[in-house]
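Notes from the pairing session

We agreed to fold both candidates in a single pass and log them together. This is the raw record for the first candidate, unedited. Please don't reformat it; downstream parsing expects exactly this layout.

Candidate A
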Amino acid sequence: MPPAQYQQVKAAVSNSRFIDYHPRGALLAHFACHEREYILAGPAGTGKSRGSLEKINAVCEKYKSARTCMVRKTRKSLTQTGMTTFEERVLPRKDYIPFHTGDQEYRYPNGSILAVAGLDDPQKLFSSDWDIVFVQQAEELTEDEWQSILRGLRNWKLPYQQLIGDCNPGPPGHWIRARAATGALRLFETRHEDNPELWDDVKKEWTERGKQYISILDGYTGVLYKRLRLGLWVAAEGMVYEDVWDRAVHVIPRFVNAPLNKDQVPKSWPRYWCVDFGYTNPFAWAAVAEDPDGRLYVYKEIYHTKKTVSEHCKRIMEVTKDEPKPVAIICDHDAEDRATFERETGYPTKGAWKAVSAGIQAMNERLKIAGDGKPRLFYLENSVVDIDPALLAAHEPTSSESEYEVYVWDTNVNKKKGEEPLKKYDHGKDRDRYLITYIDQTWKRSRPMNVEIPILTKTGEQREDWDLERRSIWHFGN
């Protein structure tokens, strides 16, 4: 933006009702943008969502009967993110703007609205006409989903119609970067110094809140540090499943667009549950269906911190009450947690085979494209039952499939790529590996020919087998 125009926008914003909001840099420049598509891109905490919502609020106040919409991949994730930002940062200094639960929209006195919607239940979004649609975390969408929203920009209560978004950087080949390179959309690059909550532009130093927030981001490592702290579009170095994982292939729409708890998974398909216990780290549980060709579909998932096993079990029984019973439940070995799980659900569990290298090889085979052009492991979109707000706020993985890009080989001293994964962001990956090695009976293929499986233990609940890699005893459920 030319300096003269920038100063004009700055003066206009300063004289508006943003009396306690002083955007800078890209966060200021985007107010003057009338292009059909643009995205605010940058590290975590640069104020992208607030800047977008401040613009939408200004539009709704200025133009009568304007129709705007806030969208995210899932509707429930907006409650903890975009709606919280709007209600706690944008609205407190305004006239009262009520939220109508039935219609899922904020209503302004002049007839303008800001609706909220998710692509997991898109009826409201695609059945209405809009002036501006704001997509939070646009990197979560596919390019087809982004383009599908464009057709609704036809309300014309504004001089321009816009699809805007915000995003954190992803891999360098992401469709957002490719679309920007063609000129189809404009990218505004934001910086932490653009956010007045974090940076004091007079003193040229971090505010107290800024010091705390930046220290959190400085604690990240690897690809998350580069993306969320530095704002770089980079791929993870040393991804464990780099050669086989493809989100566009392995993450598929829910069957018949059915909402959660009403999935059209055929009841004749066998069901499996798998669990990796956790409290401070995520508790990772999944319900998985197997089709007649042996393909596996993760269709329900709990990935949540700071809840007890008993609490998780109650939720699991709620969301699976109308489903076939699992033919097997494969669990981590924690004796106390397994006992609690069995008591609360009434189902027996089987101890997982935990040989890491052989398990990763089994996962690789499942993720590879088979002769029919399909892999043997899929994740249905929006399978997480309750998104963990703490993980969401910290920009940590919130599901098993979101771990893939940050699940990397440990290359610390005395280790090399391909030897052992880093023990971080592996909770869903461990869980999935437990199930794959059980169903594919990898333990049988890896057992030395001259070692026999010992008989059942005295309890009759477990038997022992040999971990070929570690030459140690492991347990496998009977």
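Candidate B (folded immediately after A)
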Amino acid sequence: MKTMLVALVPVLTLSIAAAAYSQPTAHNAVRDYPNRPVRAIVPSVPGGGGDLSARIFASGLSDAFNMPFVIDNRGGAGGTLGTHIAAMALPDGYTVLMGNIASHGINPALFKDLPYHPIRDYAPVSLFGTTPNALVVHPSVPANTLKELIAYSKANPNALRYGSSGVGGSPHLSMELLKTMTGMEMQHVPYKGAGAVLTDLLGGRVQVLSSSLPSQLAYIKSGKLRALAVTSKTRNAQTPDVPTVIEAGVPGYEVIIWYAMFVPAKVPKPIIAKLNATIVQVMAKPEMKARLAQAGIDAATSTPEELAAWVKVEVEKWTRVVKQANVVPEL
């Protein structure tokens, strides 16, 4: 028996060594990442600013890694559905979330019982874009400036209807913030998605909208909608003649729509670092900046730590707005 065990030792040693050699090491996993397509979940339906920015961004990552980053639109429940799906994914770096102001800024402030935690369940990777909302009106509205719109709404309380993509979304809360700061009086008409509200706005069934610039840019440039202001601190290059809300007479008003990549919380840090470094390289390319700028989006990057801090600031801001406007969420 002893002789048999001694004879088996070299065989067992070789077998163990071969097995160890065949298993991918953590170093190899990072070095080879990604070696298959990556699913990029967008927590909204196709057609909005979040979808457009994610598609441009994903194409840049696909080129940089020479591997597809495949967009997977998972809209529903105000963006919570797709965001939750991403949190539950295998933490191997092959599912990423194209998060935004709604998924990690507004929804945590709006809903008490979210199926995910914006900080505990995700690892932040980097910002990849920012854009303002554009405050637009149907051409039939007798207002060519924001001051005129404010005056008209006060003189004709609730005569105007403003649309939104749903209760608690950025279009809704940005208008409620503006109403709180100016005393405007308008009726809120919530829709299920950005496409539906734009259709009714173009048809004049609602008259006012504050929504992401990329989703409205073509209509502004064609004259089908009249832009009165953008919600950022500075003007946007695609609409240089449109003043900011601050310039239009509402000091202190600012709403920035932001887009960022997150991954499930337990994704290895070396993969996060590799993603972040590649994002910084991709977003620095003139052609990527130009593609985003043409859509009304400013390229942006951050460290994971900066993004984590930004999420906390946004949640605090929108918690105050939700409370002040007494917004009751719908899920």
